[in-house]
Amino acid sequence: TFFCFHSDIYFFNICLEDCLSSLWKHILHVSDAVDASSEQIFLWSDTFQLVSVKLTKAAGQDLEAKELSVVLDGVDASPKCIAFGREGEYVASVKEVNLQVFFFKRKQLNRFSVSTVKTKSGNNQFACIACHPTEDCIATGHADGKIRLWRNFYHKKDYTFSTLHWHHDTVMDLAFSMEGTSLLSGGVESVLVLWHNESNCQKDFLPRLGSAIEYISMSSDGTLCCTLHTDNRITIINSNLRFSKSIQGLIKSRDVKTGLVVDPRTKALVLNGEPGHLQFYCLQSDQQLFSLDIVQRQYIHQAGLNQADLVKVAFSAQGKWLATVEEREEVTDPELQLKLWLYDEETQSFKLNTRINMPHEDHITDMCFREMDELEDDSLILVTAGRDCVFKVWVMVEDTDPEGSVSWSCDFVGSYHNYQATNCCFSEDGSLLAVSFEETVTVWDSITWDLKCTFCHPPGKIRNICFGRLTCSKYLIGATDYGFLCCWNLLSCALEWSAHLNVLVLQPDPLSEHIAAVSWLSKESSLFVFKPNEPRPIYIQRNLCKEKIQLAAFVPRDEPETIVSEKYHWLRRSQLFFLTDTQVRNSEVGLTTLLHTPAHVLPSASFLCPIFINSLLISKENKSAEEVADEVEMESEKTEDDSDEERGVTEMEQEDTSAMELLGEMTRKLSKSQEKELRKIRKMDYSWISAF
Amino acid sequence: MATYKPVVVQAFPKLGERITKDTAYWRGYKTPVQIKEFGAINKIDFSPVPPYNYAVTASSRIHIYGRYSQEPIKTFSRFKDAAYCATYRDDGNLLVAGSEEGSIHLFDVSGRAPLRQFDGHAKPVHVVGFLSDKYRVFSGGDDYSSNLWDIASATEIASYSEHTDYVRCGCASKVNADVFITGSYDHTVKLFDARTKSSVMTIEHGQPVESVLLFPSGGLLVSAGGRYVKVWDVLKGGQLLVSLKNHHKTVTCLCLNSSGQRLLSGSLDRHVKIYSTTSYKVVHSFNYATSILSLALSPEDETIVVGMTNGVLSVKHKKPEERKEQSQKKRQPAYRTYVKGRTYMPKQEDFCVSKPVKRVLRKYDKLLKSFQSSKALDAVLEPPIRLYTPEVTVAVMQELHRRGTLRSALAGRDEKQINLLLTFVARRVIEPRFTPVLVTVADMITDIYQPVVGQSAIVDRQFLRLQEAIGKEIDYQEELLEVLGMMDTLFATFTEKRATYLEENKSNGLTETIETNTNN
């Protein structure tokens, strides 16, 4: 019942590590443990202390902090490492190999520790903790996959524990059922384990939940349970371990190798989703349209396994054909597969047409379709460039069998002086193919496959190439490793202009002549928009963000916007989206989210997933946390592009406050604080209306 | 929540012929019936009228076989020496045959003794036939002459001595009663008109002509001789249309199928090739045990009869339409048992319970699903899978490797199982589609069982076999590379060298343009 009303609720999580690094403080709200007149809030800060705050309700919405007292010292940063026991009688916390329990009534602190044993499967450090709702029992999860159930911890010496072991890797989270009869645990295996009666032999599984389970939470009536996954998804599960619903937006993939590609048919952003899947993400509605299983193999959720993943994606001009490359890194030679998918009108989905094993001897670096009128099918060709120093041209051939179906086969193999082919791209009319071989760009006639001419700009290898469009179709743009952006004229075969710019991303707008280049200079990313026919950029945005921008994509608008400003005229037909990376501790690529996500309503959020909801709150707002918990209306950071247009930002947000009455001020603080760990920047057109 | 995805077994495109409409059609024949004749079968001719009996000329006899008879239903054996080229008349009532002694015999199909005998050839007569007016017979003999005979009077009407070698084949035009052609070992095909005194057209085939054939329209002529089958346009004065060289020994016989869309040729190389008469490409081919001398196709393509040098007659009948037989053979449950309840529309108050579709998993998939690596490997090493679908075994091995459990699955096996594994690996490791995976497997096995080498003679032998197989393959690959190198040098000398000009243009420090012009 809890979720039924809110089937269209939007949840999202932010990596806790990121929050911590920005010194946000986490708040755990214990509604059960407080009496009616006053509220008690425990919060722990980056000093790793658990502090108790007594709050009394004052007039209006403000709550006043009255009393502060340190409860526990040396608390782990993660909220999973703290739990409140039976009706708030005690609080338990784990860190490394230590477990400490504090009894509120007796003001007694008990410390226990497990011996530091390092085994093959990992150490036995504590990873998470949960307390039995009715009995004095603490369950702790360990890094080696064991679950320990502690009892009798009133006594410092006579405590006992029993062990449950199923997980082979860290137990990420634990939760007791409401009656305490069963225990739920989850981990990297992405299997939800239900332990009955705390015994080792009675357990049920809900396997293949998609990705590692980060958090588990039970609803108050015990009928539902929900798991939060590392890939930014919430799964709602019935009490009898039946999958009921999944809530997902942009799936966070470990590594967005495919780049940002726009599906010409749905205008959705296409990128890596679940392992081995391709997600089609609608930017307008912040929804995943669908997920296409490309690899079609069982994904084993286990660290250190080397499994096939999707690395390259290309759509033909009308979106009729989809080409994907998947690879599996091997010690000796990589395992590669090129797959071609045909859109099936009947099922409204892509259907596998051709599978090519080992299309290249080595990794495929780039892939593109010849974008021509698809009415004549024989004009459609695919080019793949590989590190094995060749590029290959694939064409459709008609099968001789009675059905007359088509399949793809290799038509031409081109190479240039045994250099690795790094990029390839077709001119707008499809007559020329440019392939970059390390330092050199070669231009080929796409009918006879003759080498027409070559360009190079010596001291650097070519990083990106693209042809100009429309009126600028006689230009070829290339970006090199040592910071040059070059524009060659294809008619005179000479360098038209070049600029000193360390370009990371070069992205042409499919609907206009404009090309966006994102540079990385002195630890900040800058955006330059230019037309190939003149070396002076028409738009410069310095200090776009502090992280390296990895990928960018132009997404065509449904209808051209009317933009008055000359400066932003290039955004008339399409919008530009970026994907940044954040080097989180273990160099994990943080995927981003979101701007202008629809408002989301999370009633009784403290129950559902207290951790991540609260992680969104800033410490300054803790006074209003209670109200927030009751009804949160969140507008995600609407990030302005121009930091010098602060005024414009606030105005812009006021224009768009339909869904952010409550937290408007907070949002503004967020955007001002420039905490840009995880997010996508969306260039909202009205963000610069204020420029006038 | 996703369901378990079964292991993907890589399908590899089958090498060899692709299944086309033609292959499907020509494969629709039953296994051949073999009938032993007394000598080499030089001619088979189908009666043009039902029940389509056929006359087989072999040695000194002419046997008439019925459609499904294994025994001749009639025999003409009034020949002193070999008989040649027994041919039916268009109405199927008369049969004419040449003979070694030079006389031509005309039989009534229902009679036994010859109705007429035409004497005139001094040497054996290898080819005889009726003209399409039914009253005349043409013949060609080893005395280099082609004669024309009147049936009623048994007299020679004309004699053409234009060939300079044995006349061994011929045929009459179906559209013109006066026209017939003969092919000779003097490499020519001559077209005769009974109304003229000499041949009207001579076609130079280039090899001794073994068989000729006129298309029903009379416009195209096919000649076979040596390894070539050549098609000529008669109406254009004998212009060569196409020359087919698909056999590697002499082509001995030609025939058209009933629709005229396909041309069949039989050869001493034991093959029958079927050509499309529009593209003249080989669309299908049959092979036989020995060299083929004669070939015939019954009307409606119902039967293919091939005669061979060792006197074996191979008769293939078309398979009957399958559907009819099935319905008679086995009474299946009534249709309504299948659709029972399927069409039921739920009423308003009905409570619908959907039944989950049960997916059937193979045994190894079930084991893989529950992470039982060793057992999964055992399951795919069972004889039927290991022997008939090795790709499944290899796919499971690959999947185990992907999961990082291949080593533990391979370890801990007894002598018998290692023997089994090594036999499989040694046999399949040289197949290119399995090589990458099996090399890893072989590597692991050697690693794991290195300590026990020398303890079991069987296992040691298998290791040696594996070593031998890999050694052989390496030698083979080296040879292939050598051949490739040779071919490269050959190609390099053949292809025209491309002149490449490099123009370097250094106007300033930043600009450098290299232009490559390609000349043809």
TrEMBL record, chain A:
WD repeats lie at residues 164-195. Residues 260-583 form the WD repeat-containing protein 75 second beta-propeller domain. It comes from the Eukaryota. InterPro entries: Beta-prop_WDR75_2nd, WD40/YVTN_repeat-like_dom_sf, WD40_repeat_dom_sf, WD40_rpt, WDR75. SUPFAM superfamilies: WD40 repeat-like. Keywords: Nucleus, Repeat, Ribosome biogenesis, rRNA processing, Transcription, WD repeat. Residues 627-666 are annotated as: Disordered. One of its GO terms (biological process) is positive regulation of rRNA processing. GO terms for cellular component: small-subunit processome. It is found in: Nucleus, Nucleolus. Its main location: nucleus. Residues 627-645 have a biased composition (Acidic residues). GO terms for molecular function: RNA binding. This is WD repeat domain 75.
UniProtKB/TrEMBL annotation, chain B:
Ribosome biogenesis factor. Involved in nucleolar processing of pre-18S ribosomal RNA. Required for optimal pre-ribosomal RNA transcription by RNA polymerase I. Part of the small subunit (SSU) processome, first precursor of the small eukaryotic ribosomal subunit. During the assembly of the SSU processome in the nucleolus, many ribosome biogenesis factors, an RNA chaperone and ribosomal proteins associate with the nascent pre-rRNA and work in concert to generate RNA folding, modifications, rearrangements and cleavage as well as targeted degradation of pre-ribosomal RNA by the RNA exosome. It is found in: Nucleus, Nucleolus. It comes from Accipiter nisus (Eurasian sparrowhawk). This is U3 small nucleolar RNA-associated protein 15 homolog. Its main location: nucleus. WD repeats lie at residues 118-159, 244-285. One of its GO terms (cellular component) is nucleolus. Gene3D superfamilies: YVTN repeat-like/Quinoprotein amine dehydrogenase (2.130.10.10). It comes from the Eukaryota. Pfam families: UTP15_C (PF09384), WD40 (PF00400). GO terms for biological process: positive regulation of transcription by RNA polymerase I; rRNA processing. Residues 344-490 form the U3 small nucleolar RNA-associated protein 15 C-terminal domain. Keywords: Nucleus, Repeat, rRNA processing, WD repeat. The keyword S-adenosyl-L-methionine does not apply.
